[in-house]
Each structure stands twice: as structure tokens, then as C-alpha cells.
Amino acid sequence: MRNRWTTGLLSGLLTVAVLPVSPVSAVSGEVIGYGQGTAVDSENRPVDAVAFDAQYARYDAYATTPDRSQILLTFDQGYENGYTGQILDTLREKQVHAVFFLTGDYAKKETDLVNRMIAEGHVLGNHGMTHASLPTLSEAEAKAEIMDLHQYVLDKYGYEMQYFRCPCGEYSEAALETAQACGYRTLFWSDAYVGWKTDAQPDPAESLERLRAHAHGGEILLLQRDIHCNGNNPTICRVVFVTAAECCAFPQMWGSFTGWYLSKMSKFQNT
Fold first, then answer.
1. Could you tell me if residue 6 is inside a domain?
2. pLDDT, tens only, 42-82
3. Nearest-CA neighbor of 165 among 123, 111, 115?
4. I need a labelling partner for 220 at 20 to 30 A (CA). Which of 56, 68, 98, 149 fits?
């Protein structure tokens, strides 16, 4: 049975039912590193992300959403570094829902945070049991990487995940088809805040301006919440949280939210 927290949250964006694992056909296993590129179209969408959708939609894999009036906020939860609680506080205050892609280690260790994500209406996504690069695995190993975490979260939390994000941003046609055969849609991104480069972080105001400049309808925004501290620099330690907080705190930019998406694009155009 589909978990009540996921039903309807992606209405009008992406909808998928979890299916029995199906056989995978013979498709390319070439390892590809995803990147949305820098060139944009007339709607400010990265052309490589748009091209990805056109090429891989047949595998239920997407880098943007079809609703051009919305932005999807996503976090990759590889491990906990002390800021997720603050981010959840901010999202709750601003009535924003997001997608949190979990690894097996995170799902096992951060029970309180995962329960809070569910209780507050966020979407849990599958980021692999061990965060292994899916196209480097055999078909059986790739299925296990997805379904072992799927079953763990279902048993532990009573939550049935429906969305997968490829660990390391690496994929192949075979990997995408494997995820599809497991009943998943795969979400990449059309913009990413480079939080993992801990020694090259701008101040919060510059971070916010960057997000605004890259904003586009149908955007899937990847944020990293587990940035490492670099020495005693509090800006670097807190930049991901501050960026999320600043984005959500700009009413003229983001507006008010009822789903798990960010604001109408018209609000961007008027700022």
C-alpha cells in the first residue's frame, strides 16, 4: 500500500506507482556523469537538462518537472552534519515541503530526523543503500542497491519511497531502466548549489543571488545540507542552511507554499 504521506504530493508534477521488479532489457551500460551544463534556453532552463528529459523520459528519468510554474527543492542526505534540524525548522516556518534523498546509513542512524521529515509532510527519496554508483554494479547488485533500502524504509518507517537519485550523479541507460523496473522514477536536477566545495563558498547574499539568477520554471534544485566545516569559518559551516533559509525567507521571491514545491515563477520575474 502506498504511504499516505506520498500520495498526491506530486500531483501535476510526477506521479508513479511502486511496481514489482521487472526484467531489464539489453541497453547501454556506459557510465555517464550527469551535468546540467551552463548554456540556457529562452526560459533560462539549462539546455542539457532539457535534452536529458527528452532522451531519458522513456525510463521515467527527469532533470526538470513539466510544471513550469514551480520549483522543486531537493536535498541529498548522505550523512548528518548537524544542520538538517535547522533546515527542517525553516521549511516548517515557511510552509515549504522538500524531497530528502536518503542513503541506507542515514536511514538507519538518523531515525528522529527521518521520522520528523515524514511527520512534517516531506518526501523521502531513495539514494541507494550504500551510495554505490549504480552503473558500476551488476544488474542484480543494482536492484539490491535500490530495493534493499526501499524495503528497509518500508519496514522501519512504514513509508514507501517512489523517487530515486543516482549516487555520485552517475548513470547509464541500463541503470535508469533498472530503477524504472523497480517501480521508481529517477530525479536528477537542473540546478545544483555546489555545497561540497567547502573551501570555495561565497557569503550568503552571494549564494542567494546565484540561486535567483539560475531560477527557471520546472527547476529541480539540488542542495547539499551536509557540508563540512573548514577551520572556524562559520559562513562555510552554515552556508547551506543559510542559503535555504534566505531563499524561503524572501516573500517577494518565494511566496507561500502548500505543496512540496517552491513559488510561482511570476514572483521571480517581479523581484
1. no
2. 999 999 999 999 999 999 999 998 877 778 888 888 777 77
3. 123
4. 149
